[in-house]
Amino acid sequence: MAGSNEMTINLIVFGRTQTGKSAVGNSLLGSSDFESRCSPSSVTTRCSLGRSCYISEVIRRNGFELALHVQVLDTPSYPHSALSKEQVRETVRSALVHHFGKEGLHLALLVLRADLPLCPDESNHTIQLIQELLGPTWKDFTAVVLTHADKAEEAGLSEEAYLHSASSTLLSLLSSVQQKYIFLDNQKSIIKEERVIVLRKLLNFIRQNNYQVLLLKHKE
């Protein structure tokens, strides 16, 4: 949290290569801080922090509008085309402590593609990495972002119909994180009104968690 008329939320994004992880960070910030492009190899090789300008018309407290400030930590994908798991884990752990060690982390966003089925082996690697970094309460501080939602819409699937036909692996994951998920079309630039809707959903997840933050420490 920031001052009495301000609120800061700290987010980190995780995901496999080409899920749209960095694009999600850009959408939330309303910027192009993170490199995001189609590539046959992993694009992100180091962690970087993006900060939004203060965003209005998102949250109110005691009848007064608060200025929302969003900080997003982008991370290398895992599995990675050039980095080992140990390299990714230590890079992310160091960045988490450096950027959010004092204020804490509000949410980790696990980015998955809505236009591809989630198979058991595919999700295990990234989830294991999140567990190792965030610890035993990781489920309380993790939400799922399903990107490329426009592909599901083009196939005539509403969010309800999509989830009705989703794999048991995805449904089990959503259940484990207490149904904290959002659909996002990040193939095109997100407009301000859509960003406000997405941020309100994330704030609702944070509110459901009683505004707790995950405090991060260097591993002994």
**Overall tally of structural domains:** 1
Q: Report the CATH architecture.
A: 3-Layer(aba) Sandwich
Order of helices and strands: EHEEEHEHEHHHEH
How is the CATH topology named?
Rossmann fold
Number of strands: 7
The number of helices is: 7
What is the molecular shape? globular
CATH homologous superfamily name?
A: P-loop containing nucleotide triphosphate hydrolases
Radius of gyration, taken over Cα atoms and rounded to an integer in Å = 17 Å
Percentage of helical residues?
Answer: 25-40%
- CA(first)-CA(last) distance: 28 Å
Arithmetic mean of pLDDT: 87
Alpha-beta classification: alpha/beta
Specify the biggest β-sheet: 7 strands, mixed
**Assembly form of the protein:** single chain
Strand content: 15-25%
Uncertain stretches = none
CATH first level: which class?
Alpha Beta
Characterize this entry briefly.
The chain has about 220 residues and is α/β, with parallel strands linked by helices. It has helices spanning about 20-30, 85-100, 120-135, 150-155, 160-165, 170-175, 190-210; strands at about 5-15, 50, 55-60, 65-75, 105-115, 140-145, 180-185. About 35% of the residues lie in helices and about 20% in strands.
